[in-house]
Amino acid sequence: MSKPPKHILLGISGGIAAYKSCELVRLLRKQGHSVSVAMSRAAAEFVAPQTFQALSGQSVWTDHSAAAGNGMAHINLSREADVFLIAPASANTLAKIAHGLADNLLTTLAAARACPLAVAPAMNVEMWRNPANLRNIAQLQADGITVFGPASGSQACGETGQGRMLEAAELAELLPDLWTPKLLAGKRVLLTAGATFEAIDPVRGITNLSSGRMGVALAQACRAAGAEVVLVAGQLQVAPPAGVAVHHAHSAQAMHDAVMREACACDIFIGVAAVADYRVANRSAEKLKKDGSGTPPTIELAENPDILAAVAHLPDAPFCVGFAAESHHVLEHARAKRLRKGVPLIVANSVADAMGSASNQVTLISGSGETALPEMGKRDTADAIVAEIARLLGQAG
Ligand code: C5P
User: Fold this and answer.
1) Which of 100, 85, 98 is nearest to 13 (CA)?
2) How far is the CA of 244 from the centre of ligand 1 (A)?
3) pLDDT at 162 over 80
4) pLDDT band at 256 (very low <50, low <70, confident <90, very high)
5) What angle do CA 225, 230, 234 make, to 5 degrees?
6) Do the record's keywords include Lyase (predicted)?
């Protein structure tokens, strides 16, 4: 299910965050896209155009080079692009675009664009908070321009606060959302992901091999499909998704409580986490020690709540999706689990395939039939699951 590559026009305005855009070009090309870079005069003071030329494999456009030839680069470049991203976008460039000014290559490209525009602001916290800037940002959004970030944190100027450009990896993750069909527009999705951890004592616990990759991929796929996404995360071995509200909950009980707080406000619940069936009933407040008697300590177990079943049995339950990772008789167990938990859709896979790996092969089991998907990367699997959820919701509605 490989996705067609896109052509991205990357505008770089003046700001120290321009160094992050070098990595962004590399990541976008790694995703298979081609990238043309257009730089403002101020941007070239931070990173030399030659750096972007080498990374993009194409000549870099500047005010000077755009004026050469037929002088129509400011028109043609966005005609050739699927999307125009300005990262970093300075307060000055954003203000000009918000007002339709066109006095250099970047702003002229924005004014004359024939493709979607996204901007990743980067500026000092006080510049970001300035009412004039916030007015401009609101205007850009009202004009249909996507604004990525900015994030909060320490800034190059030494101050701390909102205004940091998103990291290259986050922008490379969010950009493809622009051309993803909005199958879940207006929906609120709640997911669990990762492994739970049941404490035995302050340093030891019972956990499992789930990496959280499938849950994170599904959260990304739901966000890309236009949903508002809340993720309740156990232990993750991968970065949490960008643009998603994340609550951390390590034990099954904490995960249950966090989910139940959110469940009524969501349209779709997807339980991807590998939740421990049992917790330690006699958890020790002190680290357990060998006492020299040769008798190992006894660990007593108590059953954990079944989060998926609890959500599915709520009076006004959201559309619920469960996962069944089994070692044997995968489909039989998954079919029985769908009925037992009372959910409309179960995603079945074998533990050997699924746990910790980057790809998997799943079968979608619903009341209307079963579909075995080919083995593919977890994000592709996630996109296919989202398509199936949208299809089933369409049937239900
Ligand atoms: O019962 P089993 O663990 O095999 O079911 C797997 C499905 O149920 C997954 O979707 C998992 O996230 C969910 N689950 C849950 N709470 C539990 C156990 C499993 O939500 N305590």
Assistant:
1) 85
2) 22
3) yes
4) very high
5) 120
6) yes
Query: Partners of 68 in the beta sheet?
Result: none
Pick the closest to residue 388 from 332, 345, 331 (CA basis): 345
Tokens describing residue 28 = 């976008």
Q: Which two tokens stand for residue 350?
A: 């074998």
pLDDT digits (tens, 9 = 90+) for 68-84: 777 787 788 888 999 99
CA dist 157 and 43 (Å) reads 17
| Alpha carbon of 64 to ligand 1 centroid (Å) | 60
- Closest ligand 1 atom, CA of 192? 12
Answer whether 253 contacts ligand 1 (Cβ < 6 A).
no
- Pocket residue to mutate for ligand 1, from 256, 257, 308, 351, most atoms within 8 A of Cβ: 308
Sign of the Cα torsion 178, 371, 218, 340 reads positive
Question: Rounded CA gap, 213 and 379, in Å?
Answer: 9
Neighbouring residues of 358: CB distance < 8 A, sequence distance ≥ 6: 213, 377, 378
Q: What is the mean pLDDT of residues 308-332?
A: 95
Which residue among 22, 115, 157, 320 is the active-site one?
A: 157
> For the domain bounded by 188-395, which CATH number is listed?
3.40.50.10300
Residue 166 · residue 174 · CB < 8 Å: yes
Q: Whose CA is nearest to atom 9 of ligand 1?
A: 323
Give the chain's end-to-end CA distance (angstroms, integer): 28
- Buried/exposed 306-338: b ≥16 CB within 10 Å, e otherwise: bbbbbbbeeeebbbbbbbbbbeeebbebbbebb
Residue ranges matching CATH 3.40.50.1950 in the chain = 7-178
Q: In CATH, which superfamily holds the domain spanning 7-178?
A: Flavin prenyltransferase-like (3.40.50.1950)
Location of structure tokens 């996404």: 229
320 carries an active-site annotation:
no
Between CA 216 and CA 223 the distance in angstroms is 11
pTM for this predicted structure: 0.92
Closest CA to 85 of 30, 23, 35: 35
Residue 283 pLDDT > 80, yes or no? yes
